[in-house]
Amino acid sequence: MRTLWWTLAIVGMSLISIVLSEHRTFDPLQNISLTIAAPVENGIRDLANPASDFFQGIFNRGDIVRENERLRREMERLQTQLAAGEDASRRVRELEDALGFQNSHPDDQLVAADVIAQDPSGLKRALAINRGSKDGLDEGMVVLSRDGSLVGTVSLVYDDFAWLRLISDPNSAVNIAVLPEGGKNPAARGIATGDLRSGVTLEMLPTQTEINPGDLVTTSGLGGNYPRALLLGTIKTVEDEPQAPSKRAVLQPAADVSALETVIVVTSFKPARLAAP
């Protein structure tokens, strides 16, 4: 019986609420509750916004990091392609120069080689090339730049590679001739030796011969270790001391020996290796 009365009471209250709601009787109460709840709701929203922005920033930052990484990889790929293209173009130019030099010396046997290493000690001026005895190289052979100026000789030979001694090496000595500009004065003979500080110095130059910056310096052919008239470079500076038995000068090499990438070995010239009388 009690359950029946409770059921009837709940049904009756529900009917009364529906009727009152349809007649907007509860609107004042709803307005009051909304007025009270609005500031609380806004405060909660203000407190929640920084946290929302924080988590949103984390997600956005992750996207930015991934995009930056993608762009970095793309830039590295493009730079690699560009470097490879430039290296290939430079290699083609070097081989073209070497081929042109070979065509202008039809009587000489020449071998073009790539520089693959340099002496790291700092006590020598030496380079390694990717040609060796299998390519016909032998010790003492003359080595030229791709434009034909003298850069050194072959010092050690292995099957597949060889070491070069540059003219700037302290153990290098070349008999040279200084050709005065205009040919007004006779050529002055001397010796070009390597120097770790100056590069190449010219010693034993006669005091009576006029020598000036810009004069050409070539091999003299004396001694039989080098062909005649190979260009070394030009006179850079002249040291002329009145009481000195000879003049001294500094060479400006025609080839930048520190930046060589391709060289030409003259395999048809055999050094005479003359012994002292």
The side-by-side strand order for the widest beta sheet comes to 1-2-5-4-3-12
Q: Could you give the count of β-strands?
A: 12
Mean pLDDT: 76
**Spatial separation of the terminal alpha carbons:** 147 Å
Domain count: the total is 3
Chain-wise SSE layout:
Elements: H1 2-22, H2 27-104, E1 110-118, E2 126-129, E3 142-145, E4 150-157, E5 162-166, E6 173-179, E7 188-195, E8 199-205, E9 216-219, E10 231-239, E11 247-253, E12 262-266
Antiparallel strand pairs: 1-2, 1-12, 2-5, 3-4, 3-12, 4-5, 6-7, 6-9, 7-8, 8-11, 9-10, 10-11
List its traits.
Thrombin, subunit H, 3 domains, 277 residues, six-stranded antiparallel beta barrel, globular, 36% helix
Describe this protein's structure.
36% of the residues lie in helices and 28% in strands. The chain is built from 2 helices and 12 strands, in the order ααββββββββββββ. The strands form 2 sheets. Strands 1-2-5-4-3-12 form a 6-stranded antiparallel beta barrel. A 6-stranded antiparallel barrel has the order 6-7-8-11-10-9. The chain is globular, with a radius of gyration of 44 Å.
